[in-house]
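Marked as duplicate of an earlier ticket. Keeping the data here for the record.
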Amino acid sequence: MNRNFFRIPIPPLLVAMAIFWAGCAPESVLVAKKFDPRATTPAPVGAPATNLTSVVSSNQIRPEWLRPSTEPYRLGPGDRIELEILGRTGTRTTTFVCADGKIYFDLLPGMDVWALTLEEARLKLEKELTQYYQHPQLSLQLTRAESKRVWVMGRLNKSGVFPLDAPMTVIEAISRAGGLFTSRFTGTTEELADLNHSFLIRSGEMLPVNFQRLLRQGDTTQNIYLEPDDFIYLPSSLSAQIYVLGAVRGPRPLGYVDHMTLTTAIAKALGTTPDAYVSQVAIVRGSLSEPRIGLVNFQAIYLGRQKDVSLQAGDIVYVPRSPFRTLERYAKLITDTFVRTVAANEGGHAVDSSFGGVGVSNPLSQ
């Protein structure tokens, strides 16, 4: 079958009409589950979804993630340490590992300690100090870990970037960030933190941590130990958005309005790109750890052969560039693209409040 047949960009007139219709509307993995986008109660503009389907993923919590690392701490730029040559007055000082990975201490030139353990760094410095002292004995202590950090962002009392100076679990990281933000009016947190769309990213991929089970049910099998540069995000449940990703001209989050349809959402994302494979557009709904996924032939909607599909707040719309190979891999691609998009935006705003945001269009095949 000719793939170019499905690559139909939305004409500017359709884009303008869809945006006009949206403006007139009233305001108002991994376990993946497939759904039918045309089920439940009919909506005035588009048919609701009905073909949501579940797909069990092999990506599960690994036993080793639930145990603290036995690896010793290794120094890196920014780490603060206290040094002293024992028995030598005036040699005690607090310094840090410079950006070049070196320590500058006493009579020594810069000594490279990047990726060394504290014991390896101490022995290396003692060896070099023998040029100036007889049998020097060095005291070296880590006073503040800055090179190993974790990101804990979202609807928390003190979200931010925290040093990973000791073994730390997800619960401990959330506690260090002040815990979930609590409404001062109701004293509850459910309406302020959206645990279904909370996630943890490691090395660019979402780990299968179920935050609903962890924080609401106390399921410790989800309380994994963190590694450097892990990114935790707990979004606000008060934000009603649709995310349009993949082969669209302007991948972005969109504010949800009543009776929002697939055509409206894609039009607001500036339409599909020329290489879009529009016969297998996906709608992902529900928890990121147990999502439901529905496939829609957008080409048939565009040609008027099928009814448009109504969306719900929190839906992820993904336009692929090629047919998916398995539903599991397709769901994982979509959720990984989603979490990378959100993490890039939230991390950018944390570093620079004027950060304009990014859209992510994953070019990989499914």
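See parent ticket for discussion. The longest helix spans residues 327-351.
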